[in-house]
């Protein structure tokens, strides 16, 4: 009957030129149970789940620990050179904190090392240099570096800053965790994480993207471009941000976290990227099923939902079907889905953009993910200055729903992580 209704609606949509909208009128606009509605622009209203701890008085003493400010300070100094042939050379000149938990070989973690990459390569492919082992792992010394450096570079970027990274205790009143979902999801996909961190005393914020969940769904495609959605996330961030903010994104939501971390380097403390893919500029696919007319997509929506269940979860049992339903995943209108997929255009978000980030990043990857290959997250770990990659063997694309305990533990460990300053180790 669902298929029949879908086909009928699709035919009506084609014949009458109507566009369907999965988001109905809101029954209530009051802040009850932690949900509120924020008007980011006139008529553009986003649902936000926000919960704050009731004990800000506990934040004072721990902030003023003697020597605490120095212990977590990392000197971020790197030089990024882009050559005319598309070659990208990254030199870490300072004491970069490299991950010791990358799930791959050759992760040497030397502080003064060089990474070479080809910007022109397809996302997720290993740089064709023969000498390297696993794709996107660790750092590599430049072979024939002297010869290459004689070429005239197209662009040279130098980053020199000091970043203080402290552990975030749940009792602190200046820490906020932001959770941003991807295409076809809603803030409900984060239910287990929001409940877990709220109970620990963290302030949490999770919005529904425009056209998703209970947010308003404008019927113009321009409302769903990367830039329009990024501005929405900027408004949410500015409304709730405090001194130390941690951004957690899933899939497409990772791009908005990267954008905010780049825009607000002094406010973004740490970033967590869950199945976000490689550090490449976003560009919509020309030969995608989502380029079909909205009415055809509407007819296909039950098939798309089934396909999402197959590709998004490692198993497709009753539990996973229930999770998909409860998380409102893939429960958006065909118009919104089409506009979201065709609006993924962000040329600025390339490898250089990601290499400029000085914020610590945790990459979480579900091994069975059919949307994002593990090589893409390995490549992201290589490009970023301070990166940790954790692969969850039993998870897929919706890993935070499939394996909530594992994901919550990983996230919490990273939130509490504080680096030892390499300079201190050398002196000692």
Automatic annotation (TrEMBL):
Q: Which GO terms describe its cellular component?
A: mitochondrion
Instruction: Name all AB hydrolase-1 domain ranges.
Output: 176-278
Name the keywords, alphabetized: Hydrolase
Per the UniProt entry, what species is this protein from, by scientific name?
A: Urocolius indicus (Red-faced mousebird)
Keyword check for Hydrolase, yes or no.
Answer: yes
- One Pfam family of this chain: Abhydrolase_1
* InterPro entries, A to Z: AB_hydrolase_1, AB_hydrolase_fold, Epox_hydrolase-like
Q: Which Gene Ontology BP terms does the record give?
A: lipid homeostasis; negative regulation of NLRP3 inflammasome complex assembly; phosphatidic acid biosynthetic process
- The keyword Hydrolase belongs to this UniProt entry's keyword annotation: yes
What is a GO molecular function of this protein? lysophosphatidic acid acyltransferase activity
Q: Which family does it belong to?
A: Belongs to the AB hydrolase superfamily.
Disordered: region residues = 53-73, 126-151
Q: What is this protein called?
A: Protein ABHD8
